Amino acid sequence: MGNSGSSNADSEERIDLRDDGRIILYKREGLKNPKWQARIRVSGASGYKIVSTKTANLRDAERFAANLYDDLDHHVRMGGSINTKTFAKVFEEWEKSITLMGPTAKGGSWTSTIERVRSYALTYFGAMKIDDIGPSDFQRYWLWRKENYAKKVPSNATLGRERTSIRSLFNFAVKMGHISKIPESDAPKNNGERRPTFTEQEWKAVVRAMDGWLLDGKQKATSRDRFLAKHYFLVLVNTGLRIGELRKLEWGDLRPIEDGDDKYVIAEVHGKTGTREVVCQKGTGRLFNEIIDLRCTELKKQNPDDPDLWNPSRTEPVFCHPDGTEIRTFKRSFHSLLTFANVPIMKNGTARTIYSLRHLYATQRLYEDVSPFHLAKQMGTSVEMLEKHYGQTVTAFAAAQITKTRPKQPKAPSPRYFED
Q1: Running DSSP on this structure, what letter comes out for residue 250?
Q2: Is position 195 within any domain?
Q3: Does residue 91 share a domain with residue 63?
Q4: For residue range 11-52, what is the model confidence (pLDDT) as tens digits?
C-alpha cells in the first residue's frame, strides 16, 4: 500500500495504492461520514474513472479499488474505454459530425446512412454502453431485426447495408476515443439473392396493358397519376436509374444530343454514388416530350395571363404534382398496373417492386452484349455488384467474349483468276 499524504484541495486524505498514480483513494471534505472515493487510470485509455467505494473502511476500499482496476484494465485491453458513453449519446455526436462533413467519399448524401441507424439500431442499442457492445450483441440484434420491421422482413442484403451504416458510427467512436476497436458485427450472408425482375414475356404483357390501364384511370379520376406513372416506369426501364435519382431529376438535368441520324437524351443524375451522366435509350426523349406537354398545358391553365409561366422551370422535378412539388412514390400505381396486366407481384417468394425495373434494364442491356464495365458506369455501380446480382448473365457475356473469334479472311485469289 502506498503512503498517506496530506489532503489536496478536494480531499482530507489521499492514498496512492500502487505508488504509480494508477489507483488513488481519497475522502471528500465537508462530509459527516465520508466514504472512500477511487480515482483509477488504466494504461491505453485516456482520462480516468472516479467512483465511490461505498465504504469508510480502508481495507474494503482497497480491495474494491484493486478489483475495479483489474476489471477496467481487462475491459480496455478488449477494446473498451474508461469513461464510456451510451450508443444513443455517440449517435448524437456522430450525426452532428457527419452532417458537417459534406458529401460522402463518392459524392452522395449521408441521409440514408443516418436513417438506417436511427430506424432500428438506435432503438435496440440506444441505452447500452458503446464499449459493452460486442459480437454476441450483434448476433442477437440481427435476429431481433428479422422480427422487427416497418413493412416487410428485411433481406440479408438490406441488413448488409445496415451493418455498413452502423460501422460508420463505430468508426467515429474509435476516432473519438470512446472505444479502441470496432466490434465484429457480421450480418447474415446474402447468399447470392437474385433480385426479382420480369421475363421478356411478362414485361411485354405489362406494356400491352398500359393503354387499357390509362383508359381505366380516366373513369376513376386517376388519369394524370397513371399517365405520369406509365412514363415513370418506362423511363426507369430505359435508363436504369435508381428510384431516388429519377425522383429528384429536374428539367435542367436533361439535354439532347445527336449522333448522326440518332438522337439521344443525356440525364445528369445525383444519387448515392455522386453525380454522373446517363445515356437514355432511344425513344426516351419522346417520353420526356409527352410529360412536358402535359406540364405546359397545366401551367397555361394555372397562369392564363402570364405566358412567361407557361413552361416549367429548369429546377422543377420532371415528375411532379400540379403544384410543382416532387412525387414521392408510384408504388400504388405499380401494383395497380401489374394487377391490371395479370402479372403477379410475387416472384419466387419475393415481391417485385419498382426497383425491379432497374434490374430489368440491367438484364436487358447484358443480354444485348453491353460491356459490364460500361453498364456499371452507366448505372452508378460496380462490375462486382453486377456479377453478384446478375452473375449468370454477366458470365454468359464473358463466355461469348472469351470464345469469340475474328471472321475468317477470304483466301488470296489464285493466280489463275487473273488469267484471261
Answers
A1: B
A2: no
A3: no
A4: 457 888 888 888 889 887 777 788 888 888 888 766 677 778
